[in-house]
From TrEMBL:
Residues 15-182 form the FAD-binding PCMH-type domain. Residues 232-252 are annotated as: Disordered. GO terms for molecular function: D-arabinono-1,4-lactone oxidase activity; FAD binding; L-gulono-1,4-lactone dehydrogenase activity. The lineage of its organism: Bacteria, Bacillati, Actinomycetota, Actinomycetes, Micrococcales. This is Xylitol oxidase. Keywords: Oxidoreductase. It comes from the Bacteria.
Length: 438
């Protein structure tokens, strides 16, 4: 096992971790011994959280060299459930699954994020029928505080509390996920969608494709871009599609053009002025799902890199109110914003998932000015939290830990589960010390 004393920073460079050491266990025994013999320890994934939810004052554990003696990706041919090493990146998992004729059902904007980290924070992609990434998990293998291994599967009493677990229960070493047969996606981009169309025809817009993302800086006269990702090889998965006849709805692009949008003049990047070469292929060219569902290519630096991010998840029935509130804050938000994104996510039953019903996700990619961003977040949260909005666990927000805990009806059950599985608080650090005080 490799152990070093370097103190790491997160992906965006806005956070320096407090860990005194970084360990890369190579085997299950090394990981078990490390956890058993360490007072404070925490798994660290691809370092894409913008807050200190993954921090510790003890040892950070990276799983990029971990080998449990099993193939990194194993698919059960009967059920289609895939068992995957938790340290894999989503792009790596997608490519490996394609080689076995399978595909992840949904992906986030970035393929660069780790399975376990994204799942633990309820990270998500987009689509009226697509839940967050954690919603496809059917099993978890966790190394717990005593160094033992516990496997939880859907149907177990603790399972819905453990999936979006914020790293509080142990080090997840393997995840089991439901997959689909391999499918292809084509991506189209339209520009300058009138705001009136978004507000009055929201269901038609978000239901036009398998995954829909609308981009705005909240001060624009129109919604600047809408990205439409359509499944092209399985009509039963198209909105309104019929598996028997092979008929689907009109192409998503045509739906948006009829609502007043225009075709994009060429390949686009979500952030104005950035090189579209980093973006996934557009123009209706079909490709494997894991190469189209994200916004960014795995081989490129995503977004801008030097940025901050926030996100608020609003009940779908309050969508129009939330969008109106954000438009009213445009003058305050726009000077600090690279881009805002509007997406939809289906609900799930996981205790700490913010998606306990169908949800509108409002994402913000900010310029790297932490003090100014936190100041505007106070205004933003004053407008959105009364509508039932909840913050993304891995991004920047200013609501107090006690207020955030109160947003989740099963939070007390989660706290009890964390205390039972980790009575000494070995896996707590950073934000978790404030969310789950001893």
């Amino acid at each position: 096992m490799v152990v070093s004393n370097d103190v790491s920073v997160n992906w965006a460079g806005n956070l320096t971790y407090s860990a005194s050491a970084v360990a890369r266990p190579g085997t299950p025994q090394e990981l078990s011994d490390l956890i058993r013999g360490t007072d404070r320890v925490k798994a660290l994934g691809s370092r894409h959280s913008f807050c200190d939810v993954a921090d510790t004052t003890g040892t950070h554990v990276l799983l990029d060299a971990y080998d449990d003696g099993r193939p990194a990706v194993v698919v059960d041919p009967g059920s289609g459930v895939a068992s995957l090493r938790a340290g894999l990146l989503y792009g790596q998992a997608g490519a490996a699954l394609l080689g076995q004729g399978r595909a992840l059902r949904t992906m986030a904007s970035l393929p660069h994020i780790s399975l376990a980290g994204a799942i633990a924070t309820a990270t998500h992609g987009s689509g009226d029928a697509n839940g967050c990434l954690a919603s496809d998990v059917v099993g978890l293998e966790i190394v717990t505080a005593d160094g033992g291994t516990r496997t939880l599967r859907r149907g177990d009493a603790d399972f819905p509390g453990a999936v979006v677990g914020l790293g509080a229960l142990g080090v997840v070493t393997r995840v089991e996920m439901a997959t689909d047969a391999a499918f292809q996606v084509s991506q189209d981009v339209v520009v300058d969608l009138p705001w009136e169309a978004l507000l009055t025809d929201l269901d038609a817009i978000t239901g036009a494709a398998y995954s829909v993302s609308a981009f705005t800086r909240w001060g624009d006269d129109t919604v600047s871009q809408v990205w439409l990702k359509s499944r092209v090889d399985d009509p039963s998965h198209r909105p309104g599609g019929d598996a028997t006849t092979g008929a689907g709805r009109r192409p998503a692009r045509e739906v948006l053009l009829d609502l007043g949008a225009r075709d994009a003049p060429g390949p686009m990047h979500p952030l104005a002025g950035e090189d579209p070469a980093a973006s996934t292929v557009q123009g209706g060219v079909a490709g494997p799902a894991h190469e189209r569902l994200p916004h960014f290519r795995a081989e490129h630096t995503p977004s801008t890199g030097a940025e901050l991010q926030s996100e608020y998840l609003v009940p779908r029935e309050r969508a129009a109110e939330a969008i109106d509130a954000m438009r009213g804050l445009g003058a305050k938000v726009r000077p600090l914003l690279f881009a805002g994104e509007i997406r939809t996510v289906a609900g799930d039953d996981l205790w700490l998932s913010p998606f306990d019903g169908d949800t509108l996700a409002l994402h913000f990619t900010w310029k790297p000015d932490g003090d100014a961003v936190r100041a505007v977040l106070r205004d933003l949260e004053a407008a959105l939290l009364p509508l039932g909005a909840r913050p993304h666990w891995g991004k920047i927000f200013v609501a107090s830990p006690s207020d955030v805990a109160a947003m989740f009806p099963r939070f007390a059950d989660f706290a009890a589960l964390a205390n039972r599985m980790d009575p000494q608080g070995k896996f707590r650090g950073g934000y978790l010390t404030r969310l789950l005080p001893a």
